[in-house]
Design goal:
There is one protein chain. The protein has nine helices and four strands, in the order E-E-H-H-H-H-H-E-E-H-H-H-H. It has helices at 21-46, 57-78, 84-105, 115-134, 138-151, 178-183, 198-224, 230-237, 239-259, and strands spanning 3-5, 11-13, 159-160, 168-169. It is globular.
């Protein structure tokens, strides 16, 4: 992996445009975990399964492991791909399709600013921000983004702090409308089954970007030595269409199973 030098003399890894099988496999494994999680969600909330564990801390940690991996990996891989504007627009458009479908057909379970909208937004914002971000030392950028993510983890709920730790309250006046919800400050009437705003989650994406700049060469060298798992790698390469199709397929299968009295 070669490096490029910016005008300020700072070196960053160049865009390779190549796939890395181990990273695709990690994405594919996370995608399988997500499909399993969403299958359980459908069974509990749409088909009435009485699974108390799914509403507990274990399932929450499962859900968080999925979204953290997807978002951090998306930021890590952003510098590796080509045509960043087109990629960002594609992912953002897929997020808009998810929103439209759920608003029209499942208004009670609508998705506003889901994970695809977040990743697409982060990709698009990186297009103008990449040049100034190159001037930020990778280690400092990673530390700052990680610290800010932890500080703003609960900002959607109106507080500063991480999970159960509450450090301060955020001014209520920031929580107004859909635009502020996209930023991270949802209004009192906002509701979404899947909600990932720019704050705090965009900071996790940026952490992945700085992680690539800091250790990308080492990570990719180590990944290239790992044994390949073709099924998982293939799933990771096609993660976006699989993501778009998995929920209607899972729902259709569960509906068919209920129809033949399996569920």
């Amino acid at each position: 992996m070669d490096a490029v030098t910016t005008g300020g003399g700072i070196q960053t890894p160049a865009r390779t445009g190549r796939r890395v099988a181990a990273l695709d496999a990690l994405r594919g494994l996370t995608l399988l975990s997500m499909i399993a999680y969403h299958t359980c969600w459908d069974l509990v909330y749409l088909f009435g399964a009485d699974w108390g564990w799914y509403r507990g801390s274990g399932a929450y940690l499962w859900q968080q492991s999925i979204c953290w991996t997807f978002i951090l990996l998306s930021g890590f891989c952003w510098s590796m791909g080509r045509r960043p504007l087109r990629r960002g627009l594609t992912v953002f458009a897929c997020g808009a399709v998810v929103t439209l479908v759920t608003v029209v057909f499942m208004p009670g379970e609508r998705i506003l600013f889901g994970v695809l909208t977040l990743i697409g937004s982060a990709m698009l914002l990186m297009v103008p921000l990449e040049k100034p971000l190159r001037r930020v030392p990778a280690g400092a950028g990673l530390a700052a983004c990680g610290a800010l993510f932890a500080l703003l983890r609960n900002v959607n709920r109106g507080t500063l702090g991480f999970e159960g730790l509450v450090l301060a309250e955020v001014p209520v006046g920031l929580y107004r409308n859909l635009f502020t919800a996209w930023l991270g400050f949802p209004g009192p009437d906002f509701s979404s089954t899947d909600y990932f705003s720019l704050l705090p989650w965009g900071l996790l994406f940026l952490s992945g970007y700085f992680l690539y700049r800091l250790w990308g060469k080492r990570v990719l060298a180590a990944a290239s030595r790992l044994p390949d798992c073709p099924p998982l790698s293939a799933l990771g390469r096609w993660s976006l269409p699989v993501y778009m199709l998995h929920q209607p397929v899972v729902y259709g299968v569960l509906l068919a199973l209920r129809g033949i009295s399996v569920l």
